[in-house]
């Protein structure tokens, strides 16, 4: 988790794990990140190599290619291969750009 927090710090946008507390989310842009699952590698009937799935959710109130480029530059600098999707959340009036990737769990 330390390396993931380091990534969040490098991005330099307010962030929270999973969500901000009710009424405490900052003005956009902001990030919520989470580890919704794992894709561990087995060997000899046990987990040999731990890998977390990671989602970085970038929220903006308007399409913001400069901010997206900045997030992507941080991921690129760290050699992270990611997939990117985007959706408009009508009820929140926010764009969500989702970066999905896998990351080794460091102990």
Question: What do these coordinates show?
Answer:
- The structure is a single chain.
- This protein is α+β, with helices and mostly antiparallel strands and 107 residues long.
- The protein has one domain: STM4215-like (2-Layer Sandwich), CATH 3.30.2000.
- The protein is built from 2 helices and 7 strands.
- It has helices spanning 2-11, 65-77; strands at 15-17, 30-38, 41-43, 46-49, 51-60, 83-89, 94-104.
- Strands 1-2-5-7-6 form a 5-stranded mixed β-sheet, with no helix packed on it. It has a two-stranded antiparallel ribbon with strand order 3-4.
- β6 and β7 (94-104) form a beta hairpin.
- The longest helix is centred in the middle third of the chain and has 13 residues, at 65-77.
- The chain starts with a helix and ends with a strand.
What's a concise summary of this model?
This protein is of the alpha+beta class and 107 residues long. The protein contains two helices and seven strands; from the N terminus they run H-E-E-E-E-E-H-E-E.
How would you summarize the topology of this molecule?
Elements: H1 2-11, E1 15-17, E2 30-38, E3 41-43, E4 46-49, E5 51-60, H2 65-77, E6 83-89, E7 94-104
Parallel strand pairs: 1-2
Antiparallel strand pairs: 2-5, 3-4, 5-7, 6-7
Largest β sheet strand count, sense and barrel closure: 5 strands, mixed
- Say what the CATH topology is: STM4215-like
Number of domains: 1
β content, as a range? 35-45%
What's the total number of strands? 7
> Strand order of the main beta sheet, please?
1-2-5-7-6
Q: Which class do the helix and strand fractions yield?
A: alpha+beta
Unreliable spans are none
Secondary-structure arrangement, i.e. CATH architecture? 2-Layer Sandwich
Mean pLDDT: 93
Distance between the termini: 9 Å
- CATH top-level class: Alpha Beta
Percentage of residues in helical conformation: 10-25%
Number of helices: 2
Helix-strand topology string: HEEEEEHEE
- Rg: 15 Å
**Tertiary shape:** elongated
């Amino acid at each position: 988790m330390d390396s993931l927090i380091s990534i969040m710090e490098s991005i330099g946008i307010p962030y929270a794990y999973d969500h901000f507390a009710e009424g405490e989310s900052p003005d956009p842009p902001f990030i919520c990140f989470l580890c919704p699952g794992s894709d561990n590698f087995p060997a000899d009937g046990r987990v040999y190599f731990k890998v977390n799935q990671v989602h970085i959710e970038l929220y903006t109130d308007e399409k913001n290619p400069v901010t997206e480029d900045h997030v992507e530059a941080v991921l690129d600098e760290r050699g992270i291969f990611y997939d990117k999707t985007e959706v408009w959340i009508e009820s929140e009036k926010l764009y969500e750009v989702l970066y999905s990737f896998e990351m080794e769990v460091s102990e």
